[in-house]
Amino acid sequence: MGQIILGVGDYGASNIQEDSIKTFALGSCVSVIFLDPKTRCVGMAHIALPDSTINKVKATEKPGYFADTAIPELLAQMAKLGCDKRGKGIIVKLCGGANVMDTNDTFQIGKRNALAIKKILWSYGMGAIAEDLGGNYSRTVSISVAAGQVILSSPGKPNWQL
Amino acid sequence: MVKKINPAELQKIVSSVPMISASASRLLQITSQPDHDIMDVVNLVKTDANLTARILKVVNSAAYGLVNQITSVDRAVSYLGQQVIVSIAIESCAGELFAKELSGYEAVGGDLWKHDLRTAIAAREVVIQSGADLSPDLAFTAGLLHDIGKALISDYLRGSAPDAVELISSHDSLDYLAAEEHLVGVDHTIAGEALAMAWQLPPELITVIRHHHQPALAEEAWRPLVYAVHLGDSIAMMGGFGTGSDSMRYKLDPHYADFFPINATILANVMLVVDTEFNKLSESLSDTGEKS
Question: Hey, which of A18-32, B45-59, B129-143 has the most confident mean pLDDT?
């Protein structure tokens, strides 16, 4: 195996030590990252919108697209690799959720995504231990299975770790 | 040290860009007219063998999955629709410009095309879903061309992305447009306008290229069109399809609401449609080796 690339609305998990999971250009989208120290597996979802009720067909075709369908699916993927199906013990990190500058409430999709994700995580008794959310720049994020390192990058800035 | 672009230098840059083809220029003029006849588009395509060949290649590509091949231009144009025809025409005559690696923005080759295509689809969808009295297809065409100026000034901005980001973070520059002007003397809308004028594009397209970040400054007659592309641009960036270091680093003008009554639900639906349509259009254009 090697590098798993996720697009918008994709999600994936791996416990293969040589793997890494990466997703590009998070604008208002949010990347939810799960790390399980017990099973040493990691997972990621690239979430675009908060609520699947606006399009149930899309939610069925691509559950990773919406916060309310992505998180249960990502947990299910992690459970296939031996993780607790309710997320117990899983470390959560969040990044993305940017907005254009001086935006009004309507266009704060990044903020709405972040809030929706946190609400759903809370329903599982989960919460993020680290987050890099908001701002007005796009992010690319990757995580290595072996080290569990979460590396972020954005054009015009040096890389940083979450 | 970043070299400044003075007016003479800008004219030199514009002169070095190949002229848009006569067919593409005429196509843009025709499709900019709200009451144009589709037969005018068909007849124009028929006069250009290269454009005809490309259009037939796209319509018969795997992306459309037609059981029986289409061999007539009339049927091909009708089947594909104006968006695809205009996309093919622009790509065929300005493809190199859109494929250019925007090193000045730390963006890879192809990012400009993807961003402009996404903006075009978003601008069109904003018009459709808000029910505004504006041609969706014109919004699409304007969106496709709005950022052409970035290809002209990118080389001059090489290495300056961290400086631009710092200028904005420290509030020395209001947005990336101001940062470009500070660093190289012109911003991408001025460069794009100069190119659009050299290409003799219709005035409404020139206005969009010049004012898509400050739509309130556009001539009143074209303001709704400019705001449509302004929104489309923001939606493309929010969807992760910007052009590198400037992505998201522009202000949203709230007066879009004067023309487009968009709430959070409409916006979410627009973003969903944009995602689907972009994948479809990208696939159909890339199946034949066109930009994707």
Answer: A18-32
> Average pLDDT for residues B35-43, to the nearest whole number?
89
The answer on pLDDT for B184 being more than 80 is: yes
3-state percent helix, strand, coil for chain A, nearest multiple of 5: 25, 35, 40
Query: Could you tell me the strand order of the sheet in which A3-6 lies?
Result: A3-6, A20-26, A139-144, A150-154, A157-161
**Confidence grade of residue B285 (pLDDT, cut at 50, 70, 90):** confident
Residue of chain B with shortest Cα separation from A139: B240
- Is A29 annotated as catalytic? yes
Residue in chain A closest to B107 (alpha carbons) equals A155
Quick one: A73 exposed, middle or buried, by C-beta within 10 A (0-12, 13-18, 19+)? middle
Determine the residue among B160, B173, B247 to mutate to test chain A binding: the one whose Cβ has the most chain A Cβ atoms within 10 Å. Answer: B247
Confidence of residue B169 (pLDDT cuts 50, 70, 90): very high
Average pLDDT over residues B50-65: 89
Q: For residue B292, name the pLDDT band (cuts at 50, 70, 90).
A: very low
A157 and B162 within 8 Å at the Cβ level: the answer is: yes
Asked whether the beta carbons of residue B175 and residue A105 sit closer than 8 angstroms, the reply is no
Contacts with B164 (C-beta within 8 Å, 6 or more apart), sequence order: A156, B157, B173, B176, B179, B180, B183, B245, B246, B249
- Collect all residues from B whose CB is shorter than 8 A from any CB in A: 105-107, 161-162, 164-165, 175, 234, 237-242, 244-245, 247-252, 254, 262-265, 267-269, 271-272, 275-276
